[in-house]
Amino acid sequence: MTRHYNFCSGPATLPLAVLERAQSEMLDYRGKGLSVMEMSHRSSDYMAIAEKAEADFRDLLGVPDNYSVLFMQGGAATQFSASALNLTGRGGTPNFLDTGIWSRKAMAEAERLTGAHLAGGSKSNGYTATPASDSIQLSDDAAYLHFTDNETIGGVQFDRLPEVNVPLVCDMSSSILSVPLDISRYGVIYAGAQKNIGPAGLTLVIVRNDLLEQAQDSIPSMLSWKVMAENGSMYNTPPTYAWYLAGLVFEWLKEQGGVEAMAVVNRRKAEKVYRAIDGSRLYDNPIAVGSRSIMNIPFTLKDEALNDPFLRESEAAGLLTLKGHRSVGGMRASIYNAMPEEGVDTLVDFMAAFEQRHWKG
């Protein structure tokens, strides 16, 4: 078996140790004679899996006791709707920062359901930098401020939290567990699993408990954070295998030294790629240095005729899924927690060799 380096933005690479453990437990989970996929979510064996996963996740991020952790379905996009419906039952308008495609999608969904207010954003700088706190203009009736911590497609990431006097709601799908967080500064954090947590289909939601009482009366039960909190995320059958695999990832992260240790490695990996881009004649990254993502690094080739050769040769070298999103073009290297530093080193070496072979400028 040959394992390549997968730079996909999601579903993304998983730790090899996690895949191997899941493989070893696939047919017979710890002598129980069945797979986790076949277990009742109400069984004592599965409840132990679920409870440990939540405990490890709380430990990794230092989630305070006055916050609920929910394991939900539907991906982060479902939380675009859920956020608006869970937080406007007492009135108020959702406010948004527009820093890229995913924040705009979240705002569009809220606009359709409850109305929305654009409080600031990055359009004026071409989506190359996050907005300064003093540029944010909340509506008089702001229910919360939503922002996307890390724009997966554009490669723009906040280096500081917006300073506002309303709850912060953050889509952290492509950056959660990559650096330490002060959870107490947020009202809500949600994250699709398929980047730094596990397989697609699972979404983690961290919500301050006082906000559980602010939902609209008509909210569907499956979107209600309060319903999910009261039912231990098991109002219906949850995505049990994805929850199990997420738990294995949390265990693996703790074995690596936790989020603090991962942050050191993640910053070092990102620095290597940015150094390779900034020091080259062929590659370019348009994002302002202070707003550069450490998880998703887009770059372009100054000669677009070299795009296809770059992709063909990189794939042949075992470097997969480097093509940029169709909306922005170019290339993108997603270097989540599970991307080993050796993979980044291999990419950097390939980029230098490709430039030497092909650049004629």
Automatic annotation (TrEMBL):
Cofactor note: Binds 1 pyridoxal phosphate per subunit.
Annotated protein name in UniProt: Phosphoserine aminotransferase
InterPro entries reported in the protein's UniProt record: Aminotrans_V_dom (IPR000192), Aminotrans_V_PyrdxlP_BS (IPR020578), Pser_aminoTfrase (IPR022278), PyrdxlP-dep_Trfase (IPR015424), PyrdxlP-dep_Trfase_major (IPR015421), PyrdxlP-dep_Trfase_small (IPR015422)
GO cellular component terms listed in the entry, alphabetical order: cytoplasm
Pathway the protein acts in: Amino-acid biosynthesis; L-serine biosynthesis; L-serine from 3-phospho-D-glycerate: step 2/3; Cofactor biosynthesis; pyridoxine 5'-phosphate biosynthesis; pyridoxine 5'-phosphate from D-erythrose 4-phosphate: step 3/5
Keyword annotations from UniProtKB, A to Z: Amino-acid biosynthesis, Aminotransferase, Cytoplasm, Pyridoxal phosphate, Pyridoxine biosynthesis, Serine biosynthesis, Transferase
GO biological process terms held by the UniProt record: L-serine biosynthetic process; pyridoxine biosynthetic process
Catalytic reactions of this protein: O-phospho-L-serine + 2-oxoglutarate = 3-phosphooxypyruvate + L-glutamate; 4-(phosphooxy)-L-threonine + 2-oxoglutarate = (R)-3-hydroxy-2-oxo-4-phosphooxybutanoate + L-glutamate
